[in-house]
Amino acid sequence: MTAYAIDDPLGRGPGLPRPGSLLRSAADSIPPSGLVLLGIFSVQLGAGFAKELFATLPPSAVVFLRIAAGALIMGLLVRPRLKGLSWGDWAVGIGFGATLAVMNLVFYEALARLPMGIAVAIEFLGPLGVAVAASRRRLDLLWVGLAAAGVVLLAPWGDSSSVSWAGIGFAMVAGVCWAGYILLSAAAGQRFPGTTGLSFAMIVSAVLVAPVGVTTGGADLLQPELLLIGLGVGLLSSVIPYSLELQALRRMPKQVFGILMSLEPAAAALIGVLLLSEFLQVQQWVAIICIVAASLGSTRASRSR
């Protein structure tokens, strides 16, 4: 979702600086690790603002606003080419978009039932599973056990008003979709040039989510203030972080990038406290730390391999 990947998309003359070059220059002045951290907090801020909308709109309607805003911006900046696509290209692109749609729908349902930090920590088991599945080392069993311990600590075995089994179930499905998203993203990267694969997937995702979002949101979706917030959520959750992450990946090893991304559940918990006043119990913080540590361990093991 990068503006700097497009050559003068608005048709400006040669005398004016292109928005892409300005964004690239600004990003080059920030260390790549800083770009990753900014992207992480941007995603979680977007999720925090989206959760505040749940008081007015159901989660599926908020998902529609987010994805529609992201698809609109992506479609303007990165127009996917449909001519010349093979049946395999169409299958990968549509599968990518469908996975993106389901992942967001179930994650927002989890977000409506769980504190942000807990929802993101459980969802993070998806990419952790992808990393461990690609390994043949016994040490990775330790990271699986550590992540499992984190989930056990998060489960509402006693009376808990902030955690529900339904929320945990939705977050786990979101994690499975995230794992599929990673695999399909790699497949799309081999079939579509640049970021056009993601642009294609977001448009497909917006089309698939629209019937559910419009039905549940109804006339409330036409309120200007909600549309504005939805646009902001789309920018914070999709366009801005992906642009920052793509720029960071060009300047740092993927393993280091993965290690930094492992901090996302902790960032989500912090944003939940600051923005939504979601104060977690000590046991829940320990659980999040276990999942973060498992992700860090599996990523470092992958780096050593």
TrEMBL record:
It is found in: Cell membrane. One of its GO terms (cellular component) is plasma membrane. It is a multi-pass membrane protein. The keyword Transmembrane helix applies. The chain crosses the membrane at residues 56-78, 90-108, 114-134, 141-158, 164-184, 196-214, 226-244, 256-276, 282-299. Its main location: membrane. The keyword Transmembrane applies. Residues 166-297 form the EamA domain. Keywords: Cell membrane, Membrane, Transmembrane, Transmembrane helix. Belongs to the EamA transporter family. This is Inner membrane transporter RhtA. It comes from Nonomuraea solani.
